[in-house]
């Protein structure tokens, strides 16, 4: 294997964390801000890019780091290396309520495509890059733009999803239609495109946006019930303005005021 062969265990229900067991000289890379705790003889080091070692030149490292900027992530990642003699543990926590999904890239033909903010951590040697959309509809209306994140290699990677997670295994030609924000990721065989909902009533009054994603098998798709953008939108809509009560609370209109104000999903 090119990637380090790590062991892991996921703890918790709603606010999960993953504990990764490292043998001597094994390492894991993670997004900044996901670290939770680690044993004493684990060395933490900030690195350019993903540390996969595909191109060790200065230009190659800069290019690897630059790809992460296009996905909205930092130039740097953090590597955790076991420099001790025995097995050591390091843990990484979910950024918000949801589930941590383990992805064995050796079972996904070496590649998995996911949302830009879904990646949590991976065995060192896994490449974290970008996936450009080749379809204009997907790029303009897919919620993730022209760029998604791709994980490549033969090791373990971990992605995070909001709320409850559904895993769908699609047969050849089978189609699944999903809200664009609810996609966590999918295997490389899946054909992903955007479809217009259609209909004046659906478009103007449906409240579900103008487009949904169509995913055609064969392949595996992971779907989340509560995207962070939806959670943040609900919190923002319910927050009092100017330190007072919300627009519907205690008023004659009540919930009707919220209905007239709309959901800002168009």
Brief account:
With about 270 residues, this protein is of the alpha+beta class.
Structural descriptors:
266 residues, alpha+beta, Double-stranded beta-helix, 6-stranded antiparallel β-sheet, 19 strands, 16% helix, globular
β-strand number: 19
Strand content: 35-45%
Task: Indicate the overall shape.
Answer: globular
Largest sheet: 6 strands, antiparallel
Q: Might you state the CATH topology name?
A: Double-stranded beta-helix
Describe this protein's structure.
With 266 residues, the protein is of the alpha+beta class. The chain has a single domain, classed as Double-stranded beta-helix, CATH 3.60.160.10. 16% of the residues lie in helices and 40% in strands. It contains 5 helices and 19 strands. It has helices spanning 58-70, 136-141, 200-205, 228-238, 255-261, and strands at residues 7-11, 17-22, 27-30, 35-38, 42-48, 76-82, 88-93, 98-104, 111-114, 119-123, 127-132, 147-152, 156-162, 165-170, 175-178, 183-187, 191-196, 211-216, 219-224. The strands form 4 sheets. It has a 6-stranded antiparallel β-sheet with strand order 5-6-3-10-13-8. Strands 11-12-9-16-19-14 form a 6-stranded antiparallel β-sheet, with helices on one face. It has a 4-stranded antiparallel β-sheet with strand order 1-2-7-4, with no helix packed on it. A hairpin with a 5-residue loop joins β1 (7-11) and β2. The protein is globular and about 60 Å long. The relative contact order is 0.15.
